[in-house]
Amino acid sequence: MNCDLTHSVLHGYLDGELDAARAVEFERHLETCRECIAALESQEALRASLQRVGLYERAPASLREKVRRDLSASKVAVLPARRLPVRWLALAAAILLVALAGWKILPLLDRDNYEATMAAEIVDAHLRSLQPGHLTDVTSTDQHTVKPWFDGKLDFAPPVRDFADAGFPLIGGRIDAFHGRTVAALVYGRRKHIVNVFIWPTKEADSVPRSGGQLGYQWIDWRKGGMEMCAVSDVSPADLDALQHLISE
Predict the structure, then answer these.
(1) What is the distance of C-alpha 128 from the center of its chain?
(2) What is the pLDDT of residue 170?
(3) How far is 170 from 190, CA to CA, in rounded Å?
(4) Cα 148-154-156 angle, rounded to 5 deg
(5) Helix (H, G, I), strand (E, B) or coil at 206
(6) What is this structure's pTM?
(7) Is the pLDDT of residue 94 over 90?
(8) What angle do CA 16, 126, 198 make, to 5 degrees?
(9) Alpha helices (H) in the chain, listed in sequence order
(10) pLDDT reported for residue 89
(11) 91-116 b/e (C-beta count within 10 Å ≥ 16 → b)
(12) Helix (H, G, I), strand (E, B), or coil: what is residue 7?
């Protein structure tokens, strides 16, 4: 009997196209499915063989030279000499318009790319923390126990507070890695859900919260007092907003 995942998921896993949650789910499946394990090993062996063979050839020097000559000849014969000035003016105008558009659009694209990358990384970090034994390095509901635990482990002091009275009890904390830096991670509870709050120092000015969702998880990011903070969980956006207000008070 064939396993459906061999055809529907295996290639995406091999090519690194699955999100973190789906990859973890497939790895658990591999623990019990001999067919998927055999298929994965076969595909990995095939890929390694193709890489060793090196199926490509360099273009001969004569072909490259012929292409250069043909391109040079086509440039000379494109238009009569009397029409070149008009063509060049049109080209210059087009380049100017593209440059102006890029000047306005690129910052927006950079911001969108940054937020998309940050969202993906923050959700991955949250999912890693939910694996057995990864949630906390120090487990305590007492902020006076969790806060001193970070001393000497980071070059900054993260703000640690318990919000049990508001429905967000402190569970503990840990050291984590996010966006190429070492960060503090505070862990809060919300009913039966886990909320991770990642904290790191920043030189940028305070900012209003930015929020979004990915893979069924919500995140909210903001800067205040030289710290950037990002909370992520599968709770509702309203719950994350409430926690953000509590931390920012």
Answers:
(1) 14
(2) 96
(3) 10
(4) 85
(5) coil
(6) 0.56
(7) no
(8) 125
(9) 4-8, 10-14, 20-30, 34-53, 61-76, 84-129, 143-149, 237-248
(10) 59
(11) eeeeeeeeeeeeeeeeeeeeeeeeee
(12) helix
At position 177, the amino acid (one-letter code) is A
Domain boundaries, the chain: 4-53, 117-248
What's the pLDDT tens digit per position in 32-90?
888 888 888 877 777 776 666 555 556 666 766 777 777 776 655 544 545 545 555 56
- Does residue 102 surpass a pLDDT of 70? no
What does the pLDDT look like over 178-224, one tens digit per residue?
777 889 999 999 999 999 999 999 999 999 999 888 888 999 999 99
Between CA 218 and CA 233 the distance in angstroms is 6
The span from the CA of 61 to the CA of 35, in Å, is 48
Tokens of 69: 């000559």
DSSP for residue 90: H
Of 167, 158, 165, the C-alpha closest to 198 is 158
Give the whole-angstrom CA distance, residue 194 versus residue 134: 13
Fold observed for domain 117-248? Phosphorylase Kinase; domain 1 (3.30.200)
Coil, strand, or helix at residue 17?
coil
Q: Which amino acid is at 157?
A: A
Q: Which two tokens stand for residue 38?
A: 């055999």
Mapped onto helix, strand or coil, the DSSP state of residue 185 is strand
Written as six digits, the tokens of 118 are 């940050």
Distance CA 189, CA 192 (A): 7
- 112 pLDDT exceeds 60? no
